[in-house]
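User: Working on a comparison across species. This one is LacI family transcriptional regulator from Fusobacterium mortiferum ATCC 9817. Can you predict its structure so I can line it up against the others?
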Amino acid sequence: MSKKITILDIAKLSGVGKSTVSRFFNNGYVSEEVREKIQRVIDEHGYAPNLFARGIKTKNNKFIGVIVPCFDSTTTSTILMNLDTKLRGEGYIPLIINTNHDIELEKANLDNLWRLNVEGIIILATQITPEHKNFVKRTQLPTLFVGQICSNGYSIINNENEAGKKIGNKVLKANLKKILYIGVDEKDITVGVTRREAVFKILRKSPDIEITEIKSDFSLEKTEILVDEYLKNNSPDCIVSATDNMAFGAMKAIYRHGYKIPEDISILGFGGYKISDVVTPRLTTIKYNNEMTGKLAAETIIKLIRNEEVPKIQKIDYEFLDRESVK
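Assistant: Here's the predicted structure for LacI family transcriptional regulator from Fusobacterium mortiferum ATCC 9817:
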């Protein structure tokens, strides 16, 4: 295989200076005669410019950084697919980085992308730290947070308050009294605080309701273990899970203890994953419009790059899927 030629090689073979070849690739002025010489060398040697290396040196390079906490989440993958399609359709190139839920890696990659001179950053955030806020203030780079609210930045979030109320009211109407709530760490403000408080606010309206809470880590596996331990000494009327994924873990533990759903224990979740319509019984849950979130995120970051006006906070609506997992 022949060695790939460089810009310097093209300059030598064309009989011109390296700066002239650079102007050629950057649409600067080059005489027609010289342009033909350079193009002839490119065609003969099959040269393809390194668009990434060239792009990061320019201001309007069309690169947008996208930071995600994981790749194995239904929510994340749905948002990513729609975001990617929309960005590419508008001529932008997403640079996707997975942090594997490592918040320190997430913060480091914000600076890494900034140094790469990307035009903007979209971050599917699990929490907002002072470092996130400082990054927005320090760099003035168009940055969009999806899933969390950054007080000095731009955010897209789900309508957690109304969705939580819907779940809480469903529990009240079903006349369920002994409730187990499966939550997550409060560092995740959206799920660990806002979603939880929206549900609790409704449940607390009834003086007869008894609420117990355990905290998991979003995983099916840990939730199954926690609920299995809880059911050894307790028998709730209802389990409300902060996510569908954790609800599936709870369902496994429920069946292991010989309980039936919903005859013995009702269960509800948040997420509306496709699998929630396949499990038996079908899970009563909140379905967020993750497709719309992805498209809106792409549209919003492009507007921010173009200095167009954008609301500080945009909310994505939901659909309540009232199925068979509640008595």
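For your comparison, note: DSSP finds twelve helices and twelve strands in the chain.

User: Helpful, thanks.
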